[in-house]
Structures are given as structure tokens and as C-alpha cells.
Amino acid sequence: MIPNKILILFAHPLFEKSQINKELVQAIPNSEHITFHDLYEAYPEFDIDIQKEQNLLLAHDLIIWHHPMYWFSCPPILKQWIDLVLQHGWAYGKEGKNLLGKTVFQVITTGGGQQHYCATGKNNYTVLELLAPFKQTAKICNMNYLPPFVIHGTHKITSDELKNHIHQYQQLLNYLLEYPIEFPIHESFPYLNDWIKTKHHGQ
User: Fold this and answer.
1) Which of 24, 21, 94, 31 has its CA nearest to residue 62?
2) What residues contact 162, with CB distance under 8 A and at least 6 apart?
């Protein structure tokens, strides 16, 4: 079986200050089938090369938007990437079928605990509800949208909790490299963190 090709589009405006994201990035398997692409490093002036980015999308099967929860959305460079790269007639619209059948999901870090992301929590909405615009973007672009991989409570996380998340992230990437992606991911798994536990891959 030919491995899936994974493109990780990373967007963190203060990457040098985020120990958790550093460890997540370091945990990415060393594989010729995984491309790590730091948008802030590639485009410090936000001058995104649309053709280059579209070629990267064409060359990969699975796209990961990796970013912190930034005012209940994503950092500005990823929003600009979405605005510029996913062009009408290329990514969506009557003639825009280049992303048909590709898969996308998000890897997200957030300082808020999971208990805060609900109707009765201080953030009022679940992470999935806040990510609805990304899910709809994927749908309009004919892509399959998976639940996110989320690390909550980054300001208070213990070393053991972080190690567990890192292990799960490695498991997830290794699984997605080797196996066909299953649809639909059952609604009982709102996060890929929970879903990958059922696969017992790499344990």
C-alpha cells in the first residue's frame, strides 16, 4: 500500500515561546511522506506564493492546519492562506475540483480547559462549534473534514499529560501514514485524541 502523503501547515506567531508546540513539532515522524510547512517562517511579510501553496496541496492527500486557538479562530496568516490559496475555480466553484476527496483536520493548542468549551462554560461554545467555519470551508472545497486533535489547558499542563498528548499525536500521524482514512469518524469521538486511542497503533 502506498503511504498517504501528509502536509502540515503550521501557523504560530510566537512559536519560539510555545514549548508545547515545539514538542509537538519535534514529535512529527521523520518520513519522506510528511511535509512540515511553517507559514510564518516561509512568509514573514505575508506575501504568500499562491501557486507554490496550491502545488503543495495537489501533492498531498491529507492536510493538517496546526495552530493555537487564536481568539476562537486561527492566527492571521492561516486565515490569509485560506483567503488567497483556496481560489474560486481552483478549490471550489463549478470548475474548482482540485481538492476533491482530500482530507483536512486541525491540530489545536489552547490555554482554556475543556470544561470551559461548552454551553455552560465561560467560552459558551465547544471547540467543534467554534471550528464550524473551517468545516464549512472544507465542505465547499470538496474535502473531507475530520474532528480536531486538541490539547487543552496548555498553561497548566503537567509533564505527564504532555507526554501522553505527544505520544497520541505520534500514534495519529503514524496511523494516518499507513492506513486508509475511515469515514465517517463516529460522533462519539469529538476529538481525534479519543479516536486514536481505539486503534492501539504503535503501542
Assistant:
1) 31
2) 20, 23, 151
Instruction: Residue 61: name the closest of 107, 100, 111, 14 by CA.
Output: 100
Q: Where are the beta strands (DSSP E) in the chain?
A: 6-10, 34-38, 62-68, 103-109, 144-145, 149-151
pTM of the model: 0.93
Whose CA is closest to 190, among 135, 136, 133, 150?
Answer: 150
Q: How many CA atoms lie within 13 A of 16 on its CB side?
A: 2
- Whether the bond into 29 is cis, omega within 30 of 0: no
Residue from 78, 71, 159 nearest 111 by CA? 71
Run of H or E including 51: helix 50-58
pLDDT tens track of the chain, all 203 residues?
Answer: 678 999 999 999 887 777 888 999 999 999 999 999 999 999 999 999 999 999 999 999 999 999 999 988 999 999 999 999 999 999 999 999 999 999 999 999 998 887 888 898 889 988 999 999 999 999 999 999 999 999 998 888 888 988 999 999 999 999 999 988 777 777 678 899 999 988 854 44
